[in-house]
Amino acid sequence: MKGEILNILLVEDNEDHAELVKRNFQHNCVANTIHHVKDGEEALNYLFRRGLYSEPSKSPKPHLVLLDLRLPKVDGIAVLREIKNSEALKTTPVVILTSSESDNDIAKAYSSNANSYVVKPVDFQKFTQLMKDLGFYWLGWNENPL
Amino acid sequence: MKSKSDLHCQELLNSLREENALLRSVLENTEQGKEIVQQREEFSLLLTVSKLIVSELNLKKVFQLVANQARDIVQAELVLVPMLNESRDRYTYSAAAGDDVDDILAVSFPVDKGMCGWVLQNERSLMFGASSPCWLDDKTVWEEGQQSAVLVPLFGRKQIIGGLSALGKKGGGSFTVHDLDLLTMFANQVSTAIENAILFQQVEQEIEVRKQAEQTIKQQLNDLERKNAELERFTYTVSHDLKSPLITIKGFLGTLVSDAKEGRFDRMESDITRIANATDKMQSLLNDLLSLSRIGRIVNPPIEFSMAQAAQEAVELLHAPIQEKKIEVLIDHNMPTAFADKQRIREVLQNLVENAIKYMGDQARPQIQIGYAARPEEGAFFVKDNGMGVDPKYHQRIFGLFEKLDSGSMGTGIGLALVKRIIELHGGKIFVESAGNGQGATFLFTLPGASSERSLA
């Protein structure tokens, strides 16, 4: 399994944040491809291969989903629930990556079976460190049930 | 043969019978006797009347009963019940018994005016008749020209509370000292009943006031809870949305620094643009927040104004984009007038029209209509377009703070939140009707101050 290119689905409406995540993951030692979608609806289309993503080659099954919460159209929690309710997708690790520190959001995410909840650090050094750690942990140390 | 003692008994009985008959004839025929019989009747009347009055707690009824019964007792043409008001410098006729007395009620006089005033001020009875005319010059309208009158004070537990004024003896003639005694006795009997009824009424009013206060508090508590929830959502949104550009700024500044160290310059310009855009975004977010908080704080007094005119003004402010997109704008000039904060309502219309322009899509014949819909529940003003429309599943979300359905569109997403806030502050409701998918959208809002009649303008 090791050595293959790992797919990450990044669900992020903020173009700048997506760019920062992508740049940081490119620096990671683990080879990966980031597929970026801009809202909850697009994320569901990708995951369930609908609409623009009906072609399986355009939507490889992700090894990891990085999911923002406040998203246009369909919000992050709704996307998370769809993933965890789906037989095909429920084992895919979903890491909530958001700027919200609200207790309510954290509780909602975990009760909807999020695998992890991470708050985007404002500080650049910390942001870089987090991206490195996330990559190492989820794409390195963690054994995926694929 | 009758015994001696039998005979004696018979004699005794006879003499008793005779005495009895004599007594009766005395009672029925002498002046003194008549008086005793009459007094007994009067006392029993007084007693029944007092009992009746004491059992009544409705103040108005008590006063009326008192007036009616006093009139019967002293056989007066007119009986008035003057009562001192709270400040004790005026008195009001709380009840009257007699012919054509309706216009007497609730008339008030200063305490130094009239015979009643004299009684109330001096706390003494007053009586006059044909042989001893009233010496007071200053009389009220109903007292003027009376041949005879008897007035007595009504004492409460602590002080004088009012009086009884009997004017004009029925069938002519004058009131007697006996009438004065009767009225005084009656006054003493009923004063407690009156005072109790007054107290009862005060307690009832107090309870009513408290009930209303409780209601107000409940209402305020609800409002507070709603505002609290709103504030919580607000803080959440603000902390999230203000943090986002900060992450961008810090992130790309960090990238710039490390790129500079590595001598990498290819993406510097675009990264700097990202930083600049994020600061702009922050600035507009802060401005929006300020205007949102201002809505709650700065409220212009409501005035009645023409909605058609307000719509016209809103459309004029958006002249440039309307021209640019060649949008046809139709304003119904028969819209009802509104009673509201005109400036804010114009902002609402401007925001809704702006929204309609922004989400017009690639409509060949773009059109915006502003008008009034008389609906069965409640009439509503509307801004209708034939643009992109709003998918029914987002009909609620679009009114949320900084909510945007399209992350690429211009603006912070405050417009509809602002509009909703303004309408709700006016006690109205706002909602959208749209089938979505290019079928246009109609934003409707109600304004409780809107007149149901159409304006003539």
What's the end-to-end separation of chain A, in Å? 9 Å
Any low-confidence stretches of chain B, pLDDT <50, length ≥5? Answer: 453-457
How large is the share of residues in beta strands of chain A?
15-25%
Give the H and E element order of chain B: HHHEEEHEEEHHEHHEEHEEHEE
| Estimated helix fraction of chain A | 25-40%
Return Rg of chain B in Å: 43 Å
Largest interface: A-B, 26 and 24 residues
Q: Could you give a short account of the major beta sheet of chain B?
A: 6 strands, antiparallel
Oligomer: heterodimer
**Which outline of chain B best applies?**
rod-shaped
Strand content of chain B: 15-25%
**What low-confidence regions of chain A span 5 or more consecutive residues with pLDDT below 50?**
none
Number of strands of chain A: 5
Question: What's the SSE blueprint?
Answer:
The complex is a heterodimer of chains A (146) and B (457).
Chain A lengths: L5 E6 L3 H12 L5 E6 L2 H8 L16 E4 L8 H10 L8 E5 L4 H9 L4 E4 L4 H18 L5
Helix pairs in contact in A: 2-3
Chain B lengths: L3 H26 L1 H24 L4 H16 L1 E9 L5 E8 L10 E3 L3 H9 L3 E3 L20 E7 L4 E10 L7 H86 L5 H30 L5 E4 H11 L1 H6 L3 E4 L5 E4 L1 H17 L8 E7 L6 E6 L29 H11 L4 E4 L7 E5 L12
Parallel strand pairs in B: 8-10
Antiparallel strand pairs in B: 1-2, 1-6, 2-3, 4-5, 5-6, 7-9, 10-11, 11-13, 12-13
Helix pairs in contact in B: 1-2, 2-3, 2-5, 3-5, 5-6, 6-10, 7-9, 9-10
